[in-house]
Structure formats: structure tokens, C-alpha cells
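#data-curation
PF: Archiving a pair of folding outputs for the training set. Convention for this channel: one message per protein, sequence first, C-alpha cells after, nothing in between. First:
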Amino acid sequence: MHLKTQRTFHELRVNDIAILNTYSIVAHDQGCTLFVSNLERIKGHFDVPEIPMKQVVVSPNKDAVYILSITGIVYVFDASGQKQKEISVPMMGVKRIGVSNDGLVMLDGRHVFYFDLNTESTEPTVFERVPALDVGFTMGTFVLMCASKIFLLKESDMEVVEAFELDCDLQKLCVLHSEEKMFVSNENNLKLFSFTGVQDEFTIPFKISNLDINDTDSRLYVYGEMSEGKLNIAFLEEMDGKYQLSQ
């Protein structure tokens, strides 16, 4: 495996990247930008304040984009880039968000806050007291990642239905929307994990900062930390039902 590509962002510090069809959405320290063709050309900018955006998430059915700012406000856009609304809760320190087609989860490292997106209510429901670091969604289930554990919560009642413990500290999570599988990472180690256990492991030639999956071709994008304005990128591609590092 060799490093697939590298992109230069000059003075921008990239905080998160999400894939939307053929576009890449980059949350950075001056807002959020839409790129074409694997970060090669800017398509446009999202209508958010020019302050750090911490995370960007695309809904499973690809009809909405959720952008989390450093202030804890979530800006919601439709797939065409039109701003729909803003969501916030009266608390400090929103760390990560996760979305289904019907709900939004916010994490503060201690609680799970759930917003029903099918109502006009701006008040969240507070569920399990779980020290989650990240969250994803697949097949009716929210996946919560803690330091060394994975919790599964059914969206219908947000109750923990199952928990798994892994033999390493977990840092990043990427959930496949169409399968009960996920990727978890620690430093430069990447594990493919299903609800039955670890299925495969990979070593990436740089420290992993972000993960995202392109549901169209099942390609996993692995992003490294920024170094001298450059962002390292590698890929895992599904071939004959098995993920392989791109050559």
C-alpha cells in the first residue's frame, strides 16, 4: 500500500471531512467548504459563521448536512446547500453529533441528547448517561463509542441493547449505514468491527484524524493529521466482499 494522495490547505486547519456523493465537505477553522472530486477544487462555501466548525455529518439518506460549530450550534442544510435551521441545547461542550433520518444525537462526554427531527420541538430528550466520545448510525441503531467500549442504542426507545469491549483505546468511529459494521481507529491502527466482533485490522502509514465512508462505492476515506498545511489521505476499498488497502 502506498499513500494515495495528499492535499494542501495552506492556512486552513481541517477539523472534519464528510462525503456527499461526489463531493467532500470540509469543516475547518474558518467555516465549512464544499469540494469537488476528492478535495481538488472548491465548489462553494456553506452559510455558517467564519469560526471553527468541529464536525460535519451527512444523513443516511443523503438529504441533509449537519455542521457542528465550536459554539455548540448545529447548522442544518439540505442536499442543495440551502440552510434549513439551527439546533442548539443550553449546555457547554458539545463534542460530537450523529444523525439518523429521523433524529439527531449530541454528546457532551457525559450524556446522550436526542432531538426528534420530525417535530418542531427544540427541546432534546436526555437519555443514557454514557461517556461517549463519538456516535454513528446504522439500520435503526445508534452506535456510541467510548474509550474502549461500543454501545448500541435502538433509536425507537434509545435504550442500550448491547455492549462490546475492545482491547484498545478507541479514538475515531465510522459506521456503515447499510450494514451492521463499523471502523474504529487508534493512532494508526484501524479495525473493521461487526456486531459479532473484530473482522479485520489494518495499519495506516500515518496517525488517523478522521474517517468517512462513501456509501456509493463503499470506499473508506482515511485522513491523517495536518502537517505543514498538508493533509494525508489513504483509502480502503471493498473487493470481493473484503476491504483492502488501495495499491
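PF: Second:
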Amino acid sequence: MKTTTFLLAAALSLLPQNTLAQTPPFKGALTITPIASNTKCLTSQNGKNNGSPVVIADCNGGADQLFTFQNGQVTMYDGKMCLDVTDGVNADGTKLQIWQCYAGAPNQAWYYNFWENSLSWNNSGKCVDLTDWSLANGNRIQIWGCSRGNPNQFWNVGYQYPNLPATSQSGQSGTNKCGTGSSASSLCQTLWLNSYDDFCLFGPPRTAAIGNIEREAIAYCTKPTHGTRVFPPGTFKGVHWVKTPEYVQITGKGDFTKIKVPKGDQGGELDNRGADGNGNPIGGLIYGNVFGPNQQFHEWTEFISHTEFCIRACVGPNAPVNCNHIYDEMG
């Protein structure tokens, strides 16, 4: 197995390790993408057939790329087919396939650690692994000895736009299915980062300090086309847009009391993980057209106070480092 070393391990070492989860924090049918690229998805190569190889392919949001985590299994096609270790062979390099689901089948027992974004085969010491770090369509996915911080074993889960659910996480106060208009009472929790004049921020749904509403924050956008609330005139005094190969960042100053941040609030951090892995806000999703059409940003962080803001969304193998979540207040 060819291994590529990045800064991923350093980022993971900063995440809380006392809480693990058998399933991702997101609900319903999900795409599974390698950290190497948001445009590639795990795919059943031959559809709903026993023995269909699990491969990497261009994401399209079709049924061959939708996985549901339930009852310790990773299922497809309305729970009829499961992610399966071929012949149950516990050896590095064994390839994955799709097979009819059987309750309690050891070949189909999986554990997703949402702090490390790894998908491990139960009681085997093996993890789902991007074979040879190759994004070539048709590259068949394997199992390999679990290695914390190995980018070959880092798998994001999410949703292909526009197929978003009404809510993406349990306990969510708003919605992700927001439409294309705007409303002063919108509870949309889906952001877009497209350009210096087409972007959104999370802010309070009512007048309250950021630290008190971080779980409930909703979207405010510069354009009235994302189903959100719209920034009132005069909100911004200046905006700075930066795009690198690994992230997009927008910073600026303004009067954010216009979006219900109390005057004097020094602000706080919103991000995709939160203290329990559910994110701040719960169910907050971010998309953009910066690195390709309608791509989901799985790693992001935002700071906002009553006078300034910064939001950054990251892609690629260094995303957890470049979008680190370590600050509580802006200074």
C-alpha cells in the first residue's frame, strides 16, 4: 500500500478522544468521499448485485453511491445490500464488495469514528482504505491495518446537492432544505461560499450572544437566492476574499448587530464538529462553487463578533489542519 503523509495526524491529536460513535452524526442516505477529493465517491460498480465491487468514481448522487449507517451495518438500496469484506478475509489488501445484508454477519459489521473519520471493520484491526491513494475511477477499495492519521483511511460523509434532507442531524432546530428564495424568518442552516459578493455566514436566529446560540445559528446571505435571511443594507464595511488550492476564506468588518449579534459581543467559534461532533450549529452544512460545482465543505470554521467576522472552508488532505477548531473568542 502506498502511503502519503500529511498533517492530518497533528490535527486529529487536537480533537477530543473521549467520545466515539458507531455511526456518523449525519442522518439518512449519505455519500462517502475520501479526504483526497470531494468529487469522488464510494460506488457500487455493478449496482444492486451480490459481489459488486466497491470502487471510487465521480460523484453523481445516484443510488449506487448512497450509504445508510444502521444497526452496525453500512447499507444500500433501502437496506437490502451491505458493505461487505470479500470472503471475510482479514488480510491487508482484501477488497470490498456489496452483498445481501444478513443480520449479525461479521463480514458486514462496521464502526465509524466521527472524530477520526475512519470506517473500521469490527474486531479486525482493519479499516476501509483508499487503495494506493489513487482517485482513478474504478480503483477498487480495500481494507488495511488501521493507522491513526493515515489519509488513505479518512472518509467524509455528507450529501450531494441538491438532494439535501430537511434536517441532517438529530436535535437540529432549523432546516437544510431551504429553497431558492429568501425570508426574514428563515431557519435555513445551509451556507454557500461562492465569491466575495455571494456568500453566507451563520448568525443568531434572535438577539443573543454567539456563545449562547451556537447550536441554533442560522444562515444569513448576501444574495436572496439561497432560501435564507439576507444581510440588511449597511451590514458590511469591508470584505476580503482569499482563495488558495486548499481553502477559501472571507474576512471582514461591519455592524453585525443588524443580524442580531448583541453590541459588545466579542463573539465565538462556529464549526463542523462542536464539542460532541454534531457541529455548531447542529445540522450546519456549507456548500460552494469555488472548487467545482455544488461541492460540500466538510471542514470549516467561522468566527463572528458584533464588529468582525472570518469564515474559512477547506478541502484536500490538510483540511483538518487548515480549518482547525481551537478558538472560542475573536481577539
